Amino acid sequence: MYRLLLLGPACLGWIAVTLQAGLRAGFLLVLGLGFGAALSASRFGFTTGWRHLMIRKDPWGMIGQMIMMAICSALSFPLLAAFSHEISGAVAPITWGLVVGALLFGFAMQLADGCGSGTLYKAGASSPTSWVVLPAFIVGSFVGASHQHAWESLGGPLQAVGLQQEAAPIDLIATTGTPIALLLTLLGCAAVALASYLFAKRSAAQTGHRVPAVPSRWVWGAVVITALYVVHLIVAGQPWGIVYGLGLWGAKVATALGADLSADTFWGVAPHAERIGEPILWDVTSVTNIGLLYGALIANRWNTDAPTRRAWPSPTQLLISIFAGCLMGYSARLAYGCNVGAYLGGVASGSLHGWVWFAFAFLGSIGGVAARRKARIE
Amino acid sequence: MTRGVIIFWTLFVLIIGIDYHVTDRPRLEPKPFALGSGEASSSGHCSGK
User: Residue B35: its chain A contacts at CB < 8 A?
Assistant: First the structure.
């Protein structure tokens, strides 16, 4: 009964958002509820998937992500190519900010035990650690956006070696056409999935164990999130994102506290400056974020076996979480998003920056996993 | 922990309500679906828009 009652506020929220912000915002709230419920119920995590590969030699989290990337790309590329005047992808340049940001994000997300989507769904599922990480993430994202222009002025690695005159996006769909772009992306996904499996198999052979069995939750989680991702693309006209909304919340709080952002190189210029003055329910990423938080709560309460940590962290872990949250928010802005906006969104938009994000965030995660051990975070 | 959940969500809904009250203004509502709307997406995204 108690669990059924949780659906009431979701329905009321949908009606309120639809009446106040329109049908599109209402649809986006429902999609956010779906993302939150799917992430929480399947415990589909980018952070844990990578960590399990590194520590437990369990490849299925990474393989699940690659299945998701491959199906998202196969469904998104034709839409992006055919309806480019209505639907735009997550395409961003390869800058030094992207490289440094992804590296730091990968490190911090292991310390915080959750990326952008992970922090949101765990906060929604009532994890006290994520309640602490979320405000810190918001602060970091707000400040990171302010600094984004300065980082972009440093240029990028391809510019440094003379391959580009300026750090510009590399859009595979526009450069090579949809079939080749899709083929390259599917090959990339298959290569990562195969490398993960072979790594796990070799490690298992060395220790006399077997590669762990495929947990079905990774497979259905990937499929459901993929379906929601494509519907989001059709409804919003842009890929699913998280970090922009969090930075906007920070900018709104800063403005409410009296900060003058008119001279800010990001928040002081159009269209971001206008968005600060608009209701939060008009912002695509904010509405899906709100839905995601509540969807995760419903799924968590429905699934009594969900292993969400309900105890408050120790003071040391609290400080580490605040630090990691700030770092994640800041670095996500330099890197044009988190695992969702840059990694999933970038790869499934045919933008090379998505793959660069993945490579450097994975490197950062190796350091983050080592730091977790040192800080004795379970 | 239930108390924590109630405090978290009360604060969250309160902030959204205050935000809406402070910022409400006329809006040209977008069509329900971007696909088929004939309009370019103008929302913010992490990739830099």
Answer: 79, 83, 86-87, 234-235, 237
